[in-house]
Amino acid sequence: GSLRTDVRRSMSSGELASALTSAMYVARDSLVRAAVSSATTVAKRCESGAAPARSALNASSTARWPAASTMHSTVSSVAMSSPTMGSAAAICCTPPSLAITPSMPVLLFISDLRHVTTTCCSSDSGVCDMDAAAAATAAAGAASGATHTVELVLGRIQLRGAPHLLVCTKKSTCGKLLGHDVFRVEHVELVPYARDALGGAAAADEDVFLRMIRTTLAMRSYYFSYTFDLTRSLKHNTLVGDGSSRVHADADQRFDWSRHLFDQLFGIDSDAAVTGAAAAWRVPLLCGFFEVASRCSVGSGGQKFQFALISRRNRHRAGTRYNVRGIDVHGNVANGVETEQIVAVEPTYASAMSYVQTRGSIPLYWSQLACIKYKPKPAIKGSATTATAPAMRHFGELLRFYGPLVLVNLIDQKGAEKQLGDEYDRLVQRLSADDKLGANKLSYVPFDFHKECKGMRYDKLQLLVDQIRDSIRQADCTRVEGLQPPPADNDTADESERRGSARRQRGAIRVNCMDNLDRTNVVQGLFAQLLLDEQLRELGLLKGNETSADAAEFEKSRKNIWADNGDAMSLQYSGTGALKNDFTRTGKRTKKGLLQDGYNSAMRYYLNNFRDGFRQDAFDVFLGVYDVRAEVAAASGRGAVVSPFADDKDVAKRTARLYTFLFVLGLVMFLVTTFQLTAERSIYTLAIIFVWLLLMYASWKVILSHGRVLVDRPRLSSQPL
Question: Where are the alpha helices (DSSP H) in 403-459?
Fold first, then answer.
């Protein structure tokens, strides 16, 4: 099954059955890798010119799948499993999609990511043959809506039980970027390789782990493209490599959120390059934001252009607001995001420009753990000296990707935030004095956002823009000329012919605040706006004294896209939309925006204290930070496997819960007694009110002292420093 038309004609059905059968009876854990090897052998034999024989699929069934004729001549890669969806599953092909119908056992072969063919397999004989009746059954299943269309294979994950194949079964089109279709993942199906025989605590743990994976994938923040590498900026898409490899072979590992799953599917080391058959399968999964506005127009010329915004979230040290802060020993920082603004002349996209900025947590060892308090106090671990080595790695990587950096720090220059800012300043001074990074590569710019913009005076942000205006212009942006749009059939074999000449962006702005969300979103939008008019003027879209702000329709669209980006970044890290986003969306602060900020702040308090522990664990399991199988094996070696989700019954937690109950009781009784007060306030009644207030106060003090045991903490491995 899934051998393409010309391959089928050069191989006997007996040889095919033998190759498939040998791949079926391997150990479950090595099933995928063995199938890849087996299929590669089949492909090589076909390429060597084996004697023609009767097709495994007869002419009538081939005619039912007209898209099969577009398939390539060799099998580039294979994934194989015996999936179970309900009781069993039948696989049929409607290129460029795969349909899974719950009906009968099958052997699943996927021969090409966008051109998939499979055949039904008899569980008794192992002989695969998609005859006319089977094709009709599959077509009927698809017509009845009882199918799942596989748009993308993300990879493989194994938890407590059988491995699962992760496949995107629903996608939505977000638009075209430089002529390339970009999609958002809407639903991912976890298809088990076999029915599990787990029971008791192991089965319960497996259900929790699966719920974690589904929770992570439920974020509508994953994007992919079959023909464009979304993990790389326009600068690297056009200038890195010689174009001889497939479009995704050089994907940026920092932003490929399916890399761990992909490695598990093909047995690739996490640091190894993806080559050979596996490279043909690789379609990176971007977590972040993508939005594009086409047929935009500014100025008097009327030339149409495309405006796009992409944010790429770093998968290293990913997580939630209070659970992941600062830097780790490898130089990865929390909430690291690269944001790129692209402008391209339509309809050919032959001229395009992009501007890249980055954000990330303050690169020190520090934490700010949830503890019931509205704003936990940040705690610095060590000093600037302690963090020098990992910070060197962090900034060394950024300098390699972007060039000289301007480090804009927006935190308060008073209170607990000031201590962080002072340590950050000392760190930058220490790094600047070190010859390893080079001279004048780092520029530190502190700006107390809250102090300067107090009283909703957001016009004072112009002071910051003016301060680094020259640095922004000196860094310039990337310009690409002669980049051809993709061919109609999306063939990427001649990618080198599509690479145009370009000039590189020669630096970047790295922005941070405490969360790298609200203040950062506002400021990055202003920096991008500063260069936008210059980009449009250079591309010939603006003339003379014209500005993009004069085009009301485009200006509204641009602001909304930047505001949507801010909401997406905040939702992924904190669980709510961004604060101060009314300024980004409208250009001014409003009372409605303040009310929305109040609601989002209250929701953040609840989510960060009582929901983010589970979400953090979900990120860690999905990204491979917590290896379930390795942890179980280690626990078995110690003599017992204890569920990480077992309820903690220690004295501290019981005490905290008791006093929480007493606080709520005191609050309820205080309100009831107060509402029952009459005009004649007796000393007895006032004394009762005082007692309830005293109970609330004492309970609250105890609750605060036990705040860490009351919040929803991560149960699995914490992010290592």
Answer: 415-432, 449-452
